[in-house]
Amino acid sequence: MARKKQSPPAASAKPAPPPPPTSAVVPIAPPPRSPGESPPWDRTTKTVVVIIGLLLLVLVTYRFQSLIGQVVAAAMLAYVLNPLIKFLDERTPLHRNTAILLVYLAVAALFLWAVVALGVAAYQQVITLIEEAPTIITNFLNWLNEFTSEPILIGPVTINPTTIDWTAVRDQLLGMIQPALSQGGRVLGSVATSTVTFFGSAFFVFIVSIYLAIELPKLGEYVGRFAHQPGYRQDAERVMREFGRIWSAYLRGQIILGLIIGAMVWIAMLALGVRNAFALGVIAGLLEFIPNVGPIISAVIAVIVAVFQPTNYLGLSPGYYALAVIAVMIVIQQVENSFLVPRIVGEALDLHPLIVIVGVFMGGSLAGITGAILAAPVLASIKLLGTYAWRKLFDLPPFPNPEDDHEEKINWRDRGRKLSQAIFGRFRK
C-alpha cells in the first residue's frame, strides 16, 4: 500500500510585533511621602526663588564692590602661592597648614620691606619732582619755543606758532602748580590716611587668602558635588582642571613677565641716564598684568619722564632723547612678544590680541583696575564654558582633545628648560 507523501513541515510563524502604544508614556510617579515630610516645590516657586536669588546677588555685588575686589585679590594670592605650598607639603615633613603659615609669613615680610623701600624712594622722588617742576616746565617751554621758531607748512595751510606767548603759558602753568605746592601738609595728611587704609585692606586680603589656601585642594570636590550623574561629575572636574590651567598659566606667567620686564626697563633706563629708572621699572613690571595695554602705558610714562628731564649725559635734546627711549621700549616689547611670552605663558589663553584689548577696556569700565587685570583670564574662562555648551548642543564630545594628567607640570618644566637654554645657550656658544 502506497504511503502518502508527507508534506514538508510548515515554517514556524514569526511572533507578531507588539502593538503600538496607544497613549503617551506615563511619567514615573514620585515615591510616596511620609506624613511629616516636606513637600517639593512646584516650577513657579522654583522660578521665583531663582529670580530673587539673582537679584540679591546683583544687589550684594553692587553694594560691596570694594570688598569683592579684595576677595578676588585674596583668591589670586592663594592660587599663585599654592604651588610653593604644595611643594613644601609633598616634599618636606611639614603639614600643609604649617607650610601655609610659613609661606604667608615670608610673603608678609617681603611685602612690608617692599612697601617701606618703595615708599621711601617714592617720597624722595616726589619731593625732587616738586622742587624741579618749575625748572622742568621752563626748559620744556624753551625747547618748544625753539622748535616752533619758524612757521610750519602743512599743504596750503601755514601755521605760525611764533605768535604764541610762551612766557604767559609758563606763568599760567606755574600759577597752577603753586597752589598744589602750598597744600603740602594736607597732602601728607591724606597720604597718611590712605596708608592706614591700604594696610588694613592688605591685612584683610592676607587673612582671607590664608583661609582660601587651606580650602583650595577641596575646590574641585565642592564643585563636583553639584553634579549628581557620574558623567556630568567628570565634566565638572575636567572643567575645573581646565580653569586651573588657564588661571595658573596667566597669573604665574604674568608675575614672571613682570619681574623680567621690570628688570629690563630698569637696566635700560639706567643705561640711558633716565631719572627714576627704578620707579619706571617697577611701574613697567606692575603694568604687565594689563595685557597689551599696560606695556604701552609704561612706555608713555617713560617717554614723558625723558622729555621733562632737564639734562642727560648723552647731550641729546629732549626730542631726540625721547626718541631714544621710545626705540628702547619698542625693542623690549618685541623681545617680550617674540621671545618671552611664547616660552612663559604659551597658548594657555588662546585669545586674539584684539579680543584681549577690547576685554581690557570693558573690564576697566566695569570693575576698574581689577577688571582690566582679570579681563584676559575671564574671557578665556568664558570661552571654555561657551565651547563646552556649544559642543553639548550639537551632541559632540565636550572636550575635543584628550586630557593629559601631567600636562601642566610638563608644560611648565619644558618652558623653564627652553627659556634657560635660550638665554644661556648663546653664551655657551
- How many runs of DSSP E, i.e. beta strands? 2
**End-to-end Cα distance:** 114 Å
Largest sheet: 2 strands, antiparallel
Average of per-residue pLDDT values: 76
The whole-angstrom Rg is: 33 Å
Instruction: Supply the number of structural domains.
Output: 2
Structural class: mainly alpha
In short:
The chain is 73% helix and 1% strand. It is mostly helical and 429 residues long. The chain has a two-stranded antiparallel sheet.
Give structural notes.
The model is unreliable at 406-410 (pLDDT under 50). The chain folds into 2 domains: 62-225, no CATH class; 230-429, no CATH class. The protein has 429 residues and is mainly alpha-helical. The longest helix has 52 residues, at 96-147. β1 and β2 form a beta hairpin. Strands 1-2 form a two-stranded antiparallel ribbon. It is 73% helix and 1% strand.
